[in-house]
Amino acid sequence: MSDRLKGKVAIITGGVAGIGLGIAECYVREGAKVVVTANHNVDGGHAAVEKFGDDVSLFVQQDVAKEADWQKVIDATIAKFGKLDILVNNAGIGGVNSAIEDLSLEDWQKVIDINLTANFLGEKAGIKAMQKTNDAKGSIINVSSVAGLVGLPLAPAYSASKGGSRLLSHATALNLAQRGIDIRVNSVHPGWIDTAIIPEAARDAIVKTVPVGHLGKPQDIGEICVYLGSDESSFANGAEFTVDGGQRA
């Protein structure tokens, strides 16, 4: 496959490692130009640009929970590539695992800020950029989680943030469609993906919970994001795409 995203420009938050890097790899393969962001993994950002080439990629350091940083990313994207077609809100954290009565407000708020408020800020900035530079057309993809469909008992903040991202996607998609704006919004719900977030000691136990018998790969999420970013998915809007090896079947 090639050229499914030819001529498109995408921002991928948290795009320098794990699922985000898998999405970026698939996007570059399909002809997109990508702007990848991260807050702490600056070395990963520079490595990604070196891998893809600075003619088709750009790294911008970003705290996704800060509105000013979103404007910085949008400005850098337009300055280098001239427009914005696709926004992938991928950056996120797991937070502290605990019973809810033992969870501090600070720990709760950090997860909500990065996993949910950042999606709101990204949608807001992305829609305005698409209206200004791309004839009010585009695709927004919010990377939620299976925890946005079924709560995780020891991850109340994570579950709430990912469930919120799911319904934010629905609401934004409806709002834009009802106003006749051709910007689609969908959510992707990964299951257990083979990234550094999975503790090695728990790997075997986790694999046993996956019906297909193995963990997913970052590229598995990348491929569904290629579809959602491409014109092939023009009738997919306000929808949920679960990629979890059958766990929610």
UniProtKB/TrEMBL annotation:
InterPro entries: NAD(P)-bd_dom_sf, Sc_DH/Rdtase_CS, SDR_fam. Pfam families: adh_short_C2. One of its GO terms (molecular function) is glucose 1-dehydrogenase [NAD(P)+] activity. Belongs to the short-chain dehydrogenases/reductases (SDR) family. This is Glucose 1-dehydrogenase. It comes from Levilactobacillus fuyuanensis. Its EC number is 1.1.1.47. The lineage of its organism: Bacteria, Bacillati, Bacillota, Bacilli, Lactobacillales. It comes from the Bacteria. Keywords: Oxidoreductase.
